[in-house]
Design goal:
The chain is of the alpha/beta class and 370 residues long. The chain contains 12 helices and 12 strands. InterPro entries: 4Fe4S-binding_SPASM_dom, Aldolase_TIM, Elp3/MiaA/NifB-like_rSAM, PqqE-like, Radical_SAM_PqqE_MftC-like, rSAM, rSAM_sf.
Length: 370
């Protein structure tokens, strides 16, 4: 069995509630008017202390929408008392000038704001008209107080055709660092048909790769795929079909190191990282939060260190090997390079942690590895 390392980073949902209506929400966030429970401030303080006790290096504060909490600024100011670095993931709609000013004196290193397209596209993506204007105002407030900002684009059918326009919009806001998040079919995204087709994604990726190679992108762009292998099918397959495997290095550095063993799934959930939802439930990663069967325990009822080291769920994740994979991936000759795709997506579709990630067109029989 793999050595049990201290977790490196945590995605911490300080609230399950959200003020928007994104059809692709991985966490199946609750509406803001349906509040029945929320982790208390004192419980957050205790959880932060446990992060230090477990030598956690990085924490992402998220939701739901974290700024729905009336005490979120007090929570952020706690960060100064701890060892971990801290980011915030937010939709940006609730950030006022006063909030931006207080963030600037907290221990938060960076704000990651969702910007899915030009105004009309962004509003449609987020489900509420007027969202884009609020985000633009928030960006201005944060920049006034020198708070570093990254932009996050969640790629869906709604915005796939508007990537270049979206980059220009983000650049004009004064933001340079942008990440495209490839959609994980979990939570609401597993119920709604918002994922782009493989052929459309291939066209988008080839176009972005060309622009990146020619230094014509207006922003510093990265693509965040759902698995952690060095050969994720989302990037490799389109480039391979175009005869451009060498261009994978535009998105994944060739000398990148991995903590995973050769026989491991390409998933660091429960190995290097974990996630905590707005009710204290602990999971391997944030994409698993909508699958309660994958909860490893609850940090309000048990110590995080005990959950991390002794949970049967985490032990299962660590002991699962590529030899154990079920479904069509088992016969793929590149399984040990691709490493089986995303475990959260595989589970959401099959209710089997060891099943194939059927988002892959090769797995569905629509493509053949050459």
């Amino acid at each position: 069995m793999n050595e049990i390392r201290d977790p490196y980073y945590v995605d911490f949902s300080v609230t399950p509630y959200c003020n928007l209506k994104c059809s692709f929400c991985s966490a199946s966030a609750c509406g803001k008017y349906s509040k029945t429970y929320e982790i208390s401030f004192d419980e957050v303080k205790d959880i932060f202390n446990q992060f230090d006790e477990n030598n956690i290096m990085r924490v992402s504060i998220e939701g739901g929408e974290p700024f729905l909490r009336s005490d979120i600024l007090d929570i952020l100011e706690l960060v100064n008392n701890h060892m971990f670095s801290c980011y915030i993931n937010t939709n940006g709609t609730l950030i006022t000038e006063e909030i931006a000013k207080r963030i600037s004196t907290s221990g938060v290193e960076k704000i990651c704001i969702s910007i899915d397209g030009p105004e009309e596209v962004h509003d449609r993506s987020r489900g509420i008209k007027g969202t884009f204007k609020k985000v633009k105002e928030a960006v201005g407030y944060l920049q006034k107080y020198d708070v570093p900002i990254d932009a996050i684009i969640t790629l869906t059918k709604i915005n796939a055709k508007y990537m270049i326009e979206t980059f220009d919009v983000i650049k004009n806001m004064g933001i340079n660092n942008v990440a495209i998040m490839l959609l994980a079919t979990v939570g609401e995204a597993s119920k709604n048909h918002v994922s782009i087709d493989y052929s459309e994604w291939k066209e988008v990726l080839i176009n972005l790769t060309d622009l990146k190679k020619e230094n014509k992108l207006p922003v510093n762009l990265q693509i965040v795929h759902t698995g952690e292998s060095q050969l994720p099918w989302e990037l490799y397959l389109p480039l391979m079909e175009a005869g451009r495997e060498e261009d994978l290095s535009m998105w994944i550095p060739p000398n990148i190191t991995s903590s995973l063993e050769e026989s491991d799934f390409g998933c660091t959930a429960g190995r290097d990282n974990l996630a905590i939802d707005g009710f204290g439930n602990v999971f391997g990663c944030s994409l698993m939060i909508s699958s309660m069967e994958l909860s490893a325990g609850n940090v309000l009822k048990d110590k995080l260190s005990n959950i991390w080291r002794n949970s049967e769920i985490f032990q299962m994740m660590r002991s699962s090997k590529l030899d154990n994979i079920e479904g069509k991936c088992k016969d793929c000759k590149l399984l040990y390079k691709c490493k089986g795709g995303c475990r959260a997506c595989a589970y959401a579709k099959s209710l089997n942690y060891k099943f194939s990630d059927e988002r892959c067109p090769v797995c569905r029989g629509e493509r053949i590895w050459s």
